[in-house]
Amino acid sequence: MNLTGIHHIAIICSEYKISKEFYVNLMGFPIINEVYREERNSYKLDLALPDGTQLELFSFPDAPVRPSYPEAQGLRHLAFQTPDIVEAVQELEGKGIKVEPIRIDEHTKRRFTFFSDPDGLPIELYES
C-alpha cells in the first residue's frame, strides 16, 4: 500500500452557517467547493488547508451530538501546525475565540493549546 498523506478530514456540524463562518472566516480556510444535496437535506463544503489536505464540512438533519468531551471513541481532536503559536492565539482571541493557556508537550517540548469549534469539537494548535 502506497499511502502518501491524508486527503481530507470530515466534520459533521449542527448549524451549517455557523460552522461555515467559523472555518472559512475565522480560521481562514478557502472554499474549494460547496454543494447542497437536496435529497439528503445536506450541505457539503470542501475547504483547503495550506498543505493540500482538505476539510469536508457536512450538515445532516438530526445528527447526534458528541457523546462526551473529549474522551469519546472516534476522532479525539484536529491538530493544526503553526510556526508561531503566540501569534495564532492572539489572532484567534482577537476574533473572539476562547483559547486555553499554552502548554508544553512533555515528550516533544513543543508548545500547544486547544480551542473548540462551534459544536465543541476540540481543535489543537501545535507549534512546529
Automatic annotation (TrEMBL):
The keyword Signal does not apply. Signal peptide: none annotated. The keyword Metal-binding applies. Pfam families: Glyoxalase. Keywords: Metal-binding. Residues 5-128 form the VOC domain. GO terms for molecular function: metal ion binding. Transmembrane segments: none annotated. This is VOC family protein. It comes from Sutcliffiella horikoshii.
